[in-house]
Write a structure and sequence with these properties.
Number of domains: 2
Radius of gyration: 29 Å
Mean pLDDT: 79
Order of helices and strands: EEHEEEH
Structural class: alpha+beta
């Protein structure tokens, strides 16, 4: 998941996009980002190996940064309009009507899961009495 974020350290901050890996055991930063941003680092007493889930060695970590704060800017996702399960375009040809009957789909909209008498998009005034 990629989020807008602010990375802060020692009275400095940087606006960036962060890729959040919720499956990672530790927090990692790209060494190029650390260099470009001028984030102070220190050498680890012993290097750490970073492994993928399959055990493959991804990297050897030899440095760590000064303490950092990461503030994520989480905005709600855009509202998704729910569409009806089917849409009607207009009267169908006799051939299409036959095809829908043979396929066992709704004669009104052509979708599976219901028939014309219970079609969710068919206007109520068109329903048979």
């Amino acid at each position: 998941m990629q989020l807008d974020a602010t990375l802060s350290w020692e009275q400095q901050s940087l606006q960036l996009s962060a890729l959040v890996d919720s499956g990672a055991d530790e927090n990692f930063l790209d060494s190029n980002l650390v260099s470009q941003a001028g984030i102070p680092v220190e050498v680890l007493p012993a290097p750490l190996n970073a492994h993928a889930l399959n055990g493959e060695l991804l990297a050897r970590v030899s440095h760590r940064t000064v303490p950092l704060s990461l503030h994520l800017s989480v905005t709600p996702p855009p509202t998704v309009r729910q569409r009806n399960p089917c849409t009607w375009v207009g009267p169908v040809s006799p051939a299409e009507r036959t095809r829908r009957m043979q396929a066992g789909v709704c004669l009104y909209c052509g979708q599976n899961g219901h028939y014309i008498t219970s079609c969710p998009v068919r206007p109520k005034e068109q329903a048979r009495q």
